[in-house]
Structures are given as structure tokens and as C-alpha cells.
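C-alpha cells incoming
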């Protein structure tokens, strides 16, 4: 291979790294958290944006790794200061994505992945239109209900609320760039990888 000399006075510039924001959403119980966990284990180059929430930690959740657990008043203060890329109230608690960390990682060339609820995903589409939006669907509504009940975390009343909410969320799937049905876990994971890396 012949190497051509660089003309004098010419400078070489590396093109800036291409970072991107990836948004993963879908109804509660669809398995998006499990898919996200597997994705991060397989691809350590991804940056997972940790959300802030006003809800209490669940067993096994770790501050600064699962979520940033903050008070309602602190959350509202951060909203007023414009510190969230998106935020929403869900099941009586606030959830939000801290803006600065996400933008810093995108600008440094990283693929940044968010796992958020429908309202937050809609806000991202407005505030950050170049994001890739992926919606995870259940194979059927009956299967979704089975998964939610199988977790054994919620009261019947809370399950009913989640299922009502899920109907609204599933109806919005067409708004997203890509829809992936989480019927077979490995297939769904492979489809997400294809969307991110192809």
C-alpha cells in the first residue's frame, strides 16, 4: 500500500466521535429492564443513564446504580432549574433523566441508553429529536398481565392501574421508530442490538 505524503501546511483532523441517544420504552412488566440489563452486560461500551426518582428503593436496588433516590421537594427544585432531559409522574412518583450527564456522554461519542416511561419518551422526542426510539411490546395483553402478576410485587389495585396504563402505552407503540415484541428474549435482544449497531 502506498502512503501519500501530507502536503505542507495541511492539517489532519479526526472527525468528532458519533454519540447517540437511544430510548427504550414499553409498558410495565414487558421485560424492558431485563433486556436493558442483558444489553449492558454484553456491551460495556454503552452508557446507561440512571434516572432520578421520588419512589422508595425496592429490595436489591442501589442508590446511584439503580436510581438516584431523592425527595419530592428536591425533584421539583431540579425540574424548576431545567436539570432534566425529561421527567414524568408515574404511579404517584416522579421519574426523570438528569440532562448534563447524558449530553456529556453523547458529546464524547458514546451510545447513551435510557429506559423510561411513555411520557418521558415523548418529551425526549421533542427535546432531543435525533434520539432512536425503541418500543418493547408484549406478545399479548394476557401474557403481559401474567408477567406483572408473576412478579408478586404489587397489590391487585396496583396491578389494575398498571394494566390500564399498559393499554394506553401499547396504543402509542406506532409513535416509535422501532417496535420489538419481547416474545422470545434472545430474539428481542438481538433485534435491539441490530438497531443499535447495524
Amino acid at each position: 500500500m502506498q502512503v501519500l505524503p501530507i502536503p505542507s501546511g495541511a492539517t489532519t483532523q479526526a472527525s468528532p466521535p458519533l454519540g447517540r441517544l437511544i430510548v427504550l420504552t414499553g409498558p410495565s412488566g414487558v421485560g424492558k429492564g431485563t433486556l436493558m440489563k442483558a444489553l449492558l452486560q454484553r456491551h460495556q461500551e454503552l452508557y446507561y443513564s440512571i434516572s432520578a426518582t421520588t419512589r422508595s428503593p425496592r429490595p436489591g436496588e442501589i442508590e446511584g446504580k439503580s436510581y438516584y433516590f431523592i425527595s419530592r421537594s428536591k425533584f421539583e427544585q431540579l425540574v424548576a432549574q431545567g436539570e432534566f432531559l425529561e421527567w414524568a409522574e408515574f404511579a404517584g412518583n416522579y421519574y426523570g433523566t438528569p440532562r448534563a450527564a447524558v449530553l456529556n456522554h453523547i458529546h464524547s461519542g458514546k451510545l447513551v441508553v435510557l429506559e423510561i416511561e411513555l411520557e418521558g419518551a415523548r418529551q425526549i422526542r421533542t427535546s432531543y429529536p435525533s434520539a432512536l426510539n425503541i418500543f418493547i411490546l408484549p406478545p399479548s395483553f394476557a401474557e403481559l398481565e401474567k408477567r406483572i402478576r408473576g412478579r408478586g410485587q404489587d397489590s391487585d389495585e396496583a396491578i389494575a392501574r398498571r394494566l390500564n396504563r399498559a393499554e394506553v402505552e401499547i396504543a402509542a407503540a406506532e409513535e416509535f421508530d422501532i417496535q420489538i415484541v419481547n416474545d422470545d428474549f434472545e430474539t428481542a435482544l438481538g433485534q435491539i442490538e441490530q438497531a443499535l449497531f447495524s
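note: The two ends are 29 Å apart (CA to CA).
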